[in-house]
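Sat 14:20. Reprocessing the chain from the morning session after the first attempt stalled halfway. Input below, unchanged.
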Amino acid sequence: MEWTNLTVTGEKVIIFRKRIAGVSASTLARFVLRARRAVPLRDTVNVLVTTSAELRSLNRRFRGADKPTDVLSFPSSLLAMRQKQRIAGDVAVSADIARSNARRFGHSVGDEVKILVLHGILHLAGFDHEQDNGEMARKETQLRRQLKLEGGLIERTGSPTRSVSIRKRTNDRPSTKRKTA
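Finished this time. Tokens:
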């Protein structure tokens, strides 16, 4: 696949398969670092910004849901977490849905991408809004304010099932299973 922008700097990989005006790989990489520190999540997070068609394909492949979604999180395997450069996982964001959400909620597409990435990072950190009685929503609200972002996904949809991580949380520890290609 051809990438329109790729940043690989030490701990971060940001891939744009679909460009977003006003959002650069370096800006997004800095945000990912700030969000990781705020969560806190020590390990590297890779981000893919792509089309709704690709998110639909990933959603179908890994979750069995044949529909596009705004953000998906893919936690790393236990093996990847034992390596020298530890990787928490990957976050995939739909540029198309981010644009639509930004228009609907009256903020920039860049802010919307950050909101989606933050949500994905929280999933990588072990939060699961489908099962945690509001814990993730409270954390997302706190971090959104800290990172100076608009309303978060859970808060503005009123639904705990808007987007999900590919793994489920078990006994407050990340699963060691990861679906692979």
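Residues 109-124 form the longest helix (16 residues).
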